[in-house]
């Protein structure tokens, strides 16, 4: 499905690829026969089907007005607005973000990894291909809302998958703000984000950790993995000596070149919100023992 979407030139083929992708991930979400997993799969299906219908609708409107089915020829303004909202829905950008934390919480860690990285790639590719005709104002406002909400909502969570979902939403904000001006930066941001998220998810999967309280006792089992988790989380937060700082730096530089210094300042300040919960995760992972007796079994060697 991904290959079909990223290599197609025709809107119908791109839509087909997106549909195949959605249908392929559903069994993976619903695999554990748990009511929450089934609920997550249902939510995911409904949102993605609606978004795919909107993608098809926007491309048909464009074809109706211009006679073009070519992805790069999205010239009709209404079509590009509908497409932007459809893809925001597929990705989980604010204001279409409500499904994403719920779905991630309902699925297992490996499936969560796929949802946060591989499933974001085809919609981002479509944005990349149509970036020259997208509306920068809409994208910038969506991006700022995403960064703000991703930071705020993540502060109060104790479930690690939900925290990672909100972190994904705020990273998508960084990608969306720059795509109309410099699409290549969006791509490098996405690749680095995928790499770091994969590290976090796979580490947590190895340690069998899904809650903050069980993360606090995990250092007894795999101290070295935990130290690596600390660094990766700080890198996701975008702290300077680490890799995660690079895309943010480049994006801020590009925004100031585009005379959007105010936007750059706001989005940087908003990402400080998410720095707080990354720090809390890192703190729980490596420094402290929980202050109270935990109910679950200690994970010794």
Keywords summarizing the entry:
301 residues, mainly alpha, 73% helix
Secondary-structure topology with pairs:
Elements: H1 2-7, H2 11-29, H3 35-66, H4 77-91, H5 99-106, H6 109-116, H7 121-129, H8 136-154, H9 160-178, H10 183-207, H11 212-216, H12 223-237, H13 245-257, H14 261-286
Helix pairs in contact: 2-3, 3-4, 3-5, 4-7, 5-9, 6-10, 8-9, 8-14, 9-10, 9-14, 10-12, 10-13, 12-14, 13-14
Membrane topology: Multi-pass membrane protein
Domain NADH:quinone oxidoreductase/Mrp antiporter transmembrane: 8-273
Transmembrane segments: 12-30, 42-60, 80-100, 137-156, 163-181, 187-204, 225-246, 261-279
H and E string:
HHHHHHHHHHHHHH
Helix fraction bin = over 70%
Give the assembly state of these chains: single chain
> What fraction of the residues are assigned to beta strands by DSSP?
under 5%
Shape: globular
**Count of DSSP-assigned helices:** 14
**Whole-number average pLDDT?**
93
Unreliable runs, pLDDT <50, ≥5 residues?
A: none
Estimated radius of gyration: 20 Å
- Cα distance spanning the termini: 42 Å
Total beta-strand segments: 0
Secondary-structure-derived class: mainly alpha
Number of domains: 2
Reported for the largest beta sheet, the result is: none
Organism: Malurus cyaneus (Superb fairywren)
Keywords: Electron transport, Membrane, Mitochondrion, Mitochondrion inner membrane, NAD, Respiratory chain, Translocase, Transmembrane, Transmembrane helix, Transport, Ubiquinone
Catalytic activity: a ubiquinone + NADH + 5 H(+)(in) = a ubiquinol + NAD(+) + 4 H(+)(out)
GO biological process, one term: mitochondrial electron transport, NADH to ubiquinone
């Amino acid at each position: 499905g991904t290959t079909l979407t990223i290599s197609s030139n025709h809107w119908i083929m791109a839509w087909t690829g997106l549909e195949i992708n959605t249908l392929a991930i559903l069994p993976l979400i619903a695999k554990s026969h748990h009511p929450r997993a089934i609920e997550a799969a249902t939510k995911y299906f409904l949102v993605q089907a609606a978004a795919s219908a909107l993608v098809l609708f926007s491309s048909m409107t464009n074809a109706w007005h211009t006679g073009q089915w070519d992805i790069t020829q999205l010239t009709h303004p209404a079509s590009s607005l509908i497409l932007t909202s459809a893809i925001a829905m597929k990705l989980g950008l604010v204001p279409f973000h409500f499904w994403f934390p719920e779905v991630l919480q309902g699925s297992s860690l490996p499936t969560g990894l796929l949802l946060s990285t591989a499933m974001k790639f085809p919609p981002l590719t479509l944005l990349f291909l149509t970036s020259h005709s997208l509306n920068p104002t809409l994208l910038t406002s969506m991006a700022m809302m995403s960064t703000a909400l991703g930071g705020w909502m993540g502060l109060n969570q104790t479930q690690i998958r939900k925290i990672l979902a909100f972190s994904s939403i705020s990273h998508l904000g960084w990608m969306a703000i720059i795509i109309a001006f410099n699409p290549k930066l969006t791509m490098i941001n996405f690749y680095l984000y995928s790499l770091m998220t994969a590290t976090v998810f796979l580490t947590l999967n190895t340690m069998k950790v899904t809650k903050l309280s069980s993360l606090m006792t995990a250092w007894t089992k795999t101290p070295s993995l935990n130290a690596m988790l600390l660094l990766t989380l700080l890198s996701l937060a975008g702290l300077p000596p680490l890799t995660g700082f690079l895309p943010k730096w480049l994006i801020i530089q590009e925004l100031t070149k585009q005379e959007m210094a105010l936007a750059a300042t706001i989005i940087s300040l908003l990402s400080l919100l998410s720095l707080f919960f990354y720090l809390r995760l890192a703190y729980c992972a490596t420094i402290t023992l929980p202050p109270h007796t935990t109910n679950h079994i200690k994970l010794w060697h």
